[in-house]
Amino acid sequence: MLNRADILLIILLLFISLTPLLFLTSQKPDRVYADITVEGKLTRRIPLSGHTGRDTFVISHDGHSNTIVVEDDTIAVTEANCPDKLCILQGPAKKPGDIIACLPHKLLIEVKGEQPKADLIPMR
Asked: Comparing C-alpha atoms, which of 36, 90, 30 is closest to residue 58?
């Protein structure tokens, strides 16, 4: 059975092991951008960080059409002639790691970010 000292030791060890999480801050990337690929080929790279206003453009390929809107620091597909319209339902993407995909049109929008070079740890 556990006595009071064992329980205190377990709590102390848990606290010590979770303490670094308090000091680690999630760093925002310096530069956030979206890569748009069609059939695996990079079609367009759009900077999202620092973007203001609203830009609209159409990606057309083999009769397929997707209307993409970049508004402030987000990107979204607002119109598409695909049958399921799932790319529209995914909503706007903003953070690095967000992805919008239109599988029937083989369109992929990936939001990526770059950290400042000083923060990178060189590999040996």
From this structure: 36
